[in-house]
């Protein structure tokens, strides 16, 4: 048999392209996608984390902690449980976030310095107002406070909506029933995306009372609400200064209030003063506050503090700031308010979620939203209780039928082969529902006794009344509101507390004067235009004839022209040779050491070329009944009201119009019945009454005061005061006192009379003033030497004497100015 020849079959294999399913790619605009995604994220943060609900005042984390503790029975009458257990329960079942976030939230809910009404009762170290951290959750324990259980009351009666938890294994409430208005009572703060909330805590009794009043009168105004709730009530107490910020916040939802620590100035047994702080502003860390005070003392920004001691304990805060003997306690206290967190500004933003949407609300809107929530809770609770009552009444109706026909019922049950046959028979023969029949079959024999029959009848009749009441409540809004009011009144009786934060009606803004001591200052001005202020006590007293101490370093060609005393809070008026007047506050001048030259007047005043200060005066305010007398070098006299200078300030205004080559020499405050004394360089003087010189406007020239001899000129002017004498000083250091009775008051325009004998030994008169025995004099020379001496050490002489040497001068030195100091007591 022949074998067949194998043949190889050729096949053409073509390359087949794989089938490609083209995806549907949808083009998008990146800007719109970013906007949409970011808004989704923002709303998630706003609703799910950062902002409280207006109804219960809680954020999701707080709500879940309270609900978890309630479901596990960790209530106020039960023993404490480990915080770790609570944290684990919340994380595992309700809030899948970090354990530190849960624990920190729980800790704050237990701190009596963070919440006005703490919601959790902590046991162990839950932190302190010093900023100390709470102990780890394995060490601390906690349970619900009784007042927080009122927020959860009736939660199992279908009063609020529930949603699935994150894993779908449980249900959690979207809001708590909240038997009291937690949002206002405990406040809230949080930062969301593009918005923030900062609601301060309030007094529970005041807020609940306002709710009751609003229930009684829905037209209640915000002004009336403010009479009930005058303002926030912080757990750390403190003092709110002013009501304007509160009023604005309550009316618009936003406002700023000023909150201060409570501090008193006490005197110790040894006569020293100390500042005692017993309350600090809300959310201020006490340790940081003490550190900031210590830093200010160390850097010498606040002087006069010798020690800072903290005696605070569980009973309250007591910080003692010890002061030096001479320290101005109120000035130091004001500086502490200004430079530390002893005074803070609290910005109120009443932002909360309303129907899951953020909204800024006034106080009435917040209260009304809470009342609306309670109305919904009461209605839902009443419906729930009505349904339960009707269900029970339905069962009792079946039991009553069975008891009325007990023999027939027993006979039917005994002859029934199965429970189902018995149930069907009961339903058919006695017209019962399946539930009623089942209840009869489950009834115990003891219910057949007469006593049990009576109990069933009593329960049934009570349920009928309850059902009628529930139905009447649901038909009447007034009854619903009455229930809300009654429950709020019960809360008020149980948990009302006294107000802690004091509210003052007057806004007290700290001015610069509040932080600067109003102490006596010496102001010096040199001919070269340099000015400074010094505390008066930098110069020790010396006897007449002393050499003085170095008071100001001046250039060889410069000399001190003006010396005066004033207090730091006074207005310092500067009158120039050209007849202009300027003013600044004394404390605005640079305070420098005794030997410092000072700063140029051009730093303070807008002086023209060739203009310098020739006279100064210090006043508290620009009263129209305060007058100034001004005299020029060549004898022109003018009286003007201080009110004319109120607009002078640093730019200056015209005080009087001068004749050619004349200049303003001296200015002093005068009263209408007071005499003024004008003296010349050659020793002639005029005493005249200021009341006989009429007051003029700023643009007036003035009138002739004293007719001068050739070559003579005016060197000064003073007022004649009771129990004072005239003091005159010559350029060679001679001085004397003269009794004013030696000078008769005359009319203006004459040549006057001699008051000082001048010669080459004494030199011309350089200055004059009215002085009392208990005054002191400052005598300054052209070379900057200052002598401080008692007036009582200078003898009294007649008009024509040369006086005695008051200061020993170096060669080529002369007296340039004098000023008086009042004796310190």
- Strands of the widest sheet, in order across it, are 14-9-8-17
Overall average pLDDT:
88
> How would you sum up the global shape?
elongated
Secondary structure category: alpha+beta
Q: Unreliable runs, pLDDT <50, ≥5 residues?
A: 1-11, 540-550
How many distinct folded domains?
4
CATH architecture of the largest domain: 6 Propeller
Biggest sheet: strands, sense, closure?
4 strands, mixed
Structure description:
With 825 residues, this protein is an alpha+beta fold. It folds into 4 domains: 58-177, Topoisomerase II, domain 5 (Alpha-Beta Complex); 262-341, 2-Layer Sandwich (Gyrase A, domain 2); 378-498, Topoisomerase, domain 3; 518-822, Neuraminidase (6 Propeller), CATH 2.120.10.90. The chain is built from 17 helices and 41 strands. A 4-stranded mixed β-sheet has the order 14-9-8-17. A hairpin with a 2-residue loop joins strand 15 and strand 16. The longest helix is centred in the middle third of the chain and has 42 residues, at 363-404. Residues 1-11 and 540-550 have low confidence and may be disordered.
Give the SSE layout.
Blueprint: H1 30-50, H2 60-71, E1 81-82, H3 83-93, H4 99-110, E2 120-123, E3 141-144, H5 146-152, E4 162-164, E5 171-173, H6 182-186, E6 188-191, E7 196-199, H7 204-216, H8 222-228, E8 239-241, H9 244-252, E9 254-260, E10 262-267, E11 273-279, H10 286-298, E12 305-310, E13 319-323, H11 329-339, E14 343-349, E15 351-354, E16 357-360, H12 363-404, H13 406-415, H14 419-430, H15 434-442, H16 450-475, H17 477-495, E17 502-504, E18 520-526, E19 530-535, E20 549-550, E21 560-567, E22 571-576, E23 580-585, E24 599-600, E25 613-619, E26 627-632, E27 636-641, E28 653-654, E29 664-670, E30 675-680, E31 684-689, E32 703-704, E33 714-719, E34 725-730, E35 734-738, E36 753-754, E37 765-771, E38 775-781, E39 785-790, E40 804-805, E41 815-822
